[in-house]
Amino acid sequence: MAAPSISGILSPHMVPLDDRGQIAEPELRRHVSWLIDRGIHGLYPNGSTGEFLRFTVEERRRITAIVCDEARGRVPVVAGAAEANVGETIRACEAALAAGARAVAVVSPFYYRLSPANVLAYFREIGRQSPIDVTLYNIPMLASPIDVPTVRRLAEEFPRIIGIKDSSGDVSHMMRLIAAVRPVRPDFAFLTGWDPALVPMLAAGCDGGTHATSNVAPELTRAIFDAVRAGRLEAARRMQHRLTELFDALFAGIDFPEGFRAGSELRGFRMGASRQPLADEQRAERGRVADRVRGLLEKLGVDISEPERAASLAGVGD
Domains in the chain, please, with CATH? Predict the structure, then answer.
């Protein structure tokens, strides 16, 4: 069987900001290299965790260019290309190709809820026009859902559409996708985007995933992937419980993805203030989230003060 076009854990990394709220390029580069050094298989700039909608078109393109340059071919870059219409999406695809990305991730149309027929029509235009390989991005809580028949038809019609990231967390939906598409496209990649379902999704046949917690504990997400691939499912299950506990703590009581920003700071990164103004109660809760996450990271055995000397999670599943 052909190998999937993309596999492993891809980090939908955040973007550090300086005191003026602008992209902190040196810190972004440091974060990218740190993630690679800790075993991440790929990078996913301009995703939901990366707050793509809070950056301008020009800033999103700059983020992709910085990440591709810093990665230097060490790992593939799948750049988010979620724009509001076909024309802007294709321009984002062109910019990602020029920057050196391996592929782009294109979300289905958002804000306006579309029928399955129009979701298919949208992605057909992307498939016809994109100069770079495309992964579909299904996030039904925020955009028009991409159903199984649509994915199969796109996989059959467009070799350039090489995979799907599904953030629904629905294992049965993923299993239906794999059953429908893999027989006709063995190279088609299936990635999960829901952290609490990483182990069951991998066990069901996913090739990998993009996980917000990889910003905070990349060692853990990589260890889970390796354990499932090696057939060490009991160890993977124990690590999944730790991952889910961390994920829940990063979400609890605070607007997404502010908890992940606080968690990244615990690993030694200067993330800066979000472009989304925080209410006073959210600022207070952010401190409580950081305290809870600090305790969980200490239990995992990672160094939360100096990322360049972060301990590995060897034996985390023991």
Answer: 8-232 (3.20.20.70)
Is 111 a residue of the active site?
no
Half-sphere exposure of 105 (CA within 13 A, CB side): 32
- The residue among 55, 30, 54, 18 whose CA lies nearest residue 269 is 30
Q: Tell me, what's the pLDDT at 315?
A: 43
Verify whether residue 299 is a known catalytic residue.
Answer: no
C-alpha of 229 from chain center: 20
Residue with tokens 């995992």: 300
Which residue ranges in the chain fall short of pLDDT 70?
Answer: 1, 305-318
157: tokens are 């019609």
CB atoms within 10 A of CB 200: 19
Catalytic residue among 44, 111, 122, 137: 137
Model pLDDT for residues 20-40, shown as the tens digit of each residue: 999 999 999 999 999 999 999
User: Which member of 111, 112, 122, 165 is catalytic?
Assistant: 165
Q: What is the pTM of this model?
A: 0.92
Q: Which H/E stretch holds residue 226?
A: helix 218-229
Res 30: pLDDT: 97
